[in-house]
Amino acid sequence: MRAFIAIEIPEDLRTETKKFQSELQKQDFVAANWTSDYHLTLKFLGDIDELKQKKIEKVLSDIAEKTKSFELELKGVGAFPSQDYVRVLWMGAGYGDDEAKFLQKEIDEALEELDFEREANYVNHLTLARVKAIKDKIKLKKFFETKKSFGKFKVSEIKLIKSELTKEGPVYKTLKEFHLLQ
Q1: What's the CA gap between 145 and 2, in Å, rounded?
Q2: Complete domains list, the chain, with CATH
Q3: Cα-Cα end-to-end distance for the chain
Q4: What pTM, to 2 d.p., does this model score?
Q5: Which of 71, 69, 34 is nearest to 168 (CA)?
Q6: What is the 3-state secondary structure (H, E, C) of the chain?
Q7: pLDDT one digit per residue (tens) for the chain, 182 residues
Q8: Catalytically annotated residue among 29, 39, 48, 103
Q9: Helices (H) and strands (E) in the chain — how many of each?
Q10: Do the Cβ atoms of 17 and 9 come closer than 8 Å?
């Protein structure tokens, strides 16, 4: 099964994200597949079996037991692999970015023992769209100037999530939640 580790965002920020996506779609500066499930992926695991899942759960449980919950702000926008060659549009992190990066690094280092590769250039982000084509470069450049804060939320858990690819897009199911220290 395909799986990943993520921070899910609360309903109020999901609503803000949907509104922002709608505004972007109306501007019609890119042809894209817009996402509808909002999370910050801490680690993509790829295909894992049941034995590896149990080992990952133990690692995540150990990390959660020693990690304090924290505030995280969704702020600004960007692109992968770069603003000059756009394949993914995303919403970034502001306040709390360092804490989220530290959590990701802890997960990354711990999973290295289970033969997972470390992330070279991790960026906290929430994927907004997978871009097929750019229709208007001027509007796209203006989009990257967005420094707006979309809101803050308390990160109090991380999730191990199953990803099933379908014709309609990926379907996600939480396999297990790991609560951080309060």
Answers
A1: 35
A2: 2-179 (3.90.1140.10)
A3: 32
A4: 0.91
A5: 34
A6: CEEEEEEECCHHHHHHHHHHHHHHHHHCCEEEEECCCCEEEEEEEEECCHHHHHHHHHHHHHHHHCCECEEEEEEEEEEEECCCCEEEEEEEECCCHHHHHHHHHHHHHHHHCCCCCCCCCCCCCEEEEEEEEECCHHHHHHHCCCCCEEEEEEECEEEEEEEEEECCEEEEEEEEEEECEC
A7: 999 999 999 999 999 999 999 988 888 889 999 998 899 999 999 999 999 999 999 999 999 999 999 999 999 999 999 888 899 999 999 999 999 999 999 999 999 999 999 988 899 999 999 999 999 888 888 888 878 899 999 999 999 999 988 887 788 999 999 999 98
A8: 39
A9: 4, 9
A10: yes
Beta-bridge partner residues of 176: 160
Among candidate residues 74, 96, 80, 107, the one with its CA nearest the CA of residue 3: 107
Please identify which residue in the block is written with the tokens 């997972």: 116
β-pairing verdict for 149-155 and 70-81: antiparallel
Query: CA 120 to CA 4: how far, in whole Å?
Result: 17
Q: Which of 5, 67, 90, 125 is catalytic?
A: 125
Q: What would the two tokens of residue 18 be?
A: 């949907």
Dig out the tokens for 176 from the structure: 């297990």
39 is catalytic: yes
Token pair listed for 68: 């304090």
